[in-house]
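Quick one: structure tokens for this chain, please?
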Amino acid sequence: MAKNKKKNRINVALRSLGAAASVDLDAAKALANKCEFPQGALAQAGTIWSILASQPSPHAISINDVGQASFATLLDDNLRPLVYFDAGWPVVFNGKTAPRSPPTPRAGTPVVISHWDFDHISGFFRFPELRQAPWIAPVQRLGPGAKKIAAALAGRGLLMGWSGTSISLPWGELIKCSGLPNIVNHSGLALMVTLQSGKRALLVGDANYDTINLPNSSFDYLAVTHHGALFKGVVPPPAASNALGIISVGRGNVYGHPKAASIAAHTQAHWLIARTAGTRKQRRGSRTLGP
């Protein structure tokens, strides 16, 4: 009887999901063909929902120190990985920013990537454990390195491409960014996470804030967009003054990130900003959002 009740709850949740999230399969196939994205890897909303919804509500989020790259970990209350958001490692010309002690991913943990820029996905090559996990990814134009990763994952049945609407989860929302399809930074995926404490965190990859469709929302934690680069849109408001915002960035990167204007905009919006690269007052290292 208990198993039947659980099955019924899942079926009800999936029916609700079907009403909330949608994808035009013909349009998705056309986009995949145009972007040279593996068509066999196009996913249904229910598949993505079942992978992410099977994870418990996160206790905290680690913004991992990976130098000039992006790699966040949603953690349970024993600090074990539940989901990775982006899985990056510095590209060659920013290699000097890589940490001496890199993260240690757990094999099989689902990966969600914001977009296909190499500094958000090249952990695939750096960490063998990530090659054994499902990857949920936007359907976008792929560069040469991204094509190799996509093909390898698709060949193992581990790539799930999504170009539909946002997907509601028991502990948050997988957000489809609204930017132009030909601009990968702003047309990918973002993630809103509600922690066990009830506090909310927003992870946006490199997307402009004006492409995140969460009107009238405030957040307790923020992963600052695009390594502290310049951006468009209003900074999301913090739920309280001096809420913590983290910049994932490597000191001495060739882009000159973070930009002073970006830090000033977040500070003026009443975020307390820290960075993985550290400062004169704080050593470099991973930073925790939560609990």
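The CA atoms of residues 210 and 284 lie 30 Å apart.
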